[in-house]
Amino acid sequence: MKIKFILAFAVSLFLVSCKQEPKTGEPTISPTVINIPATASGKPAVAGSAPIMTFAEEKHDFGKITQGEVVTYAFSFRNDGGSDLVISSAQGSCGCTIPSYPKVAIKPGQVEKIDIKFDSASKSGLVQKTVTLVTNCTPSTKVLTISATINVPEEE
Questions:
Q1: Which residue has better confidence, 46 or 67?
Q2: Rounded to the nearest 5 degrees, what angle is found at the Cα of 95, between the Cα atoms of 94 and 97?
Q3: Which residues, other chains included, contact 142 with Cβ-Cβ below 8 Å and sequence gap of 6+?
């Protein structure tokens, strides 16, 4: 009996301690703006009500760069839907690919950008990396791709 009580106490203590608070000064998004049309109710979304993330392009080739160069590119997009678009996360495929994205709701018709910084240190040859965005659009993920041909400088 004591073991069950101790186990129950430990589990409840663990669950209570896992609440994540937003960082001070970091913008927060109200849960009321997250309008995911694919709901558990099974009812279809009203036509034109969902956010739609439309990119001018989803791939960018930096061309030939020298090993060690840090290059950046901004992917431009527009919310072509009828409600606020929210990007909940953006994750690079490795530590060398760092995305920066709007942390506020994007209104219908609004144009924004995703900045991607790529560090070519210790890379060589043809390299392709991705950034995966998680949004409140359908589908909920969008993948952006960058590539480059990295030349290794000759040692003297």
A1: 67
A2: 75
A3: 53, 55, 58, 132, 133, 135
> Could you give the count of Cα atoms lying within 13 Å of 146 in the half-sphere of its Cβ?
29
Backbone CA torsion sign across 106, 109, 113, 114: positive
| CATH entry 3.30.470.20 includes domain 47-156 | no
Burial tier of 102 (Cβ tally within 10 Å: 0-12, 13-18, 19+): middle
pTM for this entry: 0.71
Is residue 22 pLDDT above 90, yes or no?
no
Task: Give pLDDT tens digits for 99-134.
Answer: 999 999 999 999 999 999 999 999 999 999 999 999
Closest CA to 113 of 140, 90, 97, 129: 90
Domains of the chain, by residue range, sit at 47-156
